[in-house]
Each structure stands twice: as structure tokens, then as C-alpha cells.
Amino acid sequence: MGCELGVLGVGHLASALLDGVFKRGVLAPEQVLLSDAHPVHLDRFAAMGCAIASANADLKVAPRLLLAVRPQSFEEAASTLGPCADDQLVISVMAGLDSGRIRDALGGSCRMVRAMPNTGATYGASMTCVATGEGGTEEDLRWTTDLFGSIGLTTRIEESLMSAATAVCGSGPGWVYLLASSMVAGAREVGFDEAASEAMVRQVLLGASSVLEHSSSDLDALLDAVASKGGTTEAGLAAMRAGGFEEAVRAGIVAARDRGDELSS
Fold this sequence. Notes:
Layout: E1 5-8, H1 12-23, E2 32-35, H2 43-48, E3 51-52, E4 64-67, H3 74-81, E5 89-92, H4 99-105, E6 111-116, E7 126-132, H5 138-148, E8 152-156, H6 162-170, H7 172-189, H8 194-214, H9 219-226, H10 232-242, H11 245-264
Parallel strand pairs: 1-2, 1-4, 2-3, 4-5, 5-6, 7-8
Antiparallel strand pairs: 6-7
Helix pairs in contact: 6-11, 7-8
């Protein structure tokens, strides 16, 4: 069974991806070659049957490489990896680094695809945006989409929208956690203790997520369904809107997008 994928950087995201890939049979452990600066990250996958590279450059025996290092570590990683061949696909999950910059650092001839998953990958619930980069083909995009389909849903976008995708999907869990934290604080203010507040808020968000997943109604209809005229939900929504809730959320997404663009420049 030949090597199909080399992975540089086996942190939380790559680990979640590999677990999904193996669980769903997209690849077998024996088809994956790994390298990481921290050997402890590799032990579990070595026990499954993954091969471990003795040096980053050895990863290039694979026809496809996944770059899952921190963006600020990429230049050093690229120097140890060395130039990639024109018949190699390089898949990047690094935010803020466009495909041209990555390709140039790897010799300027490889084929590029970018992907932006999120932390839901740990539970098979990621929303991953994938985009063809410089030199990438439709087949490259299809293969990458199948790979990330093992950890949730995927959608194809243009690379020019990758910073926007990072703001909505990659950073998106952060917006939900901030909402959850604010709801817990509100529950405490109206009389509940910390444990009860957290339990209630977690279940409310889980239930609302289930409704979003299974309901065919649009978001406005769902809001109308829970906000009876003159009722408590309507009063709460009015206070939140008056406090700038919607504007703040939009501003946060735009700010995250803009920061991604800055990092790419």
C-alpha cells in the first residue's frame, strides 16, 4: 500500500483530520507519512500504522502534502522541507498565507489547494472551505474536498474569499463561545448559580443547533417562532438589538476578515 499523503505538523487540527480520515476509510494509516517537531504528537498515529519521517524533506515521497504548521512557523518549515515537484499537490490549512506565497517558498512549481476547517473537526462537525490555489486542478480540489469531508461539511470557494471564510468559519466558534459566555453571565445575573447557568446555556445552544440542522425554516422564521408579540423573547431581542448586538457581530466578522487580509499581504 503506497504512501498517499505526507503531513507536516500533527497538532489538534491535523490529529482530528487523521482520526476522521481513518474512521471513514478515506485513507489507511499505512498510506500516511507524518512529521512533527514534537515526537509525542506522533506516538498515537505510529501505533495505528502511520509511517514517521526522519526529516521533513522525507515527506516529499508522498504525492500530496498537508501543511498544518502555524503560519508563523511556515518559513522555517519550508526551509527544511525544500522545493516540491511540479507533480506534487500541497494542501495548506494555514490562515493568512496565500497559495502564491506558499508555492514560491516551496520552489514555485507545486500545485496548491487551501482549506479552512474549524475546531468542530474534533467531533466530525467542521465547516471546511476549500479553494483551488496556484497551479491547482479540479482533481486536486475534488481530492481535498473528499479528505476534509471526513470531518464534517465542505464548501468550495474562490481563494480571494479565504480570509472571509476564516472570519465566518475558522473563527466562527469563537463568536458562539462569546455568546455562550454572555448568556451564562446573564443567567447568573437573574439568579442562577454558575453550574446551573452553564448547564442551561450549553443545552439551549445544543438544542438551537439541532433546530438549525433539521428545520427547513429560514432564520427569520425561526426568530418569529420563538418571539411572540409582547412576550419575553421579543423584549430580550429588542434590548439586545438596542445594545448593538447585530452590529457588533457583523463588525467582528469584518475585523477578522480584514486581519486575515493584512496577514496575507
